[in-house]
Amino acid sequence: MSDIVYEADVRIERVRGPERLAYIPAHEGAVEFGVHGAIAEHYGVRPRTETSTTLDYVIAATGG
Length: 64
Prior knowledge:
This protein is 27% helix and 22% strand.
């Protein structure tokens, strides 16, 4: 087995309901996650502000 070449230092902070702050490497400050549109409707939540979901970031990262 090869040696570990990278270990991400990530911290997630729950703010309220679906709202989260993520502290990730090479990014100044926190990244905000929440819900919007059809996703908020699906989960029956009313966000204070519409914010990108973690799923949005996963899809964007996959698309590269």
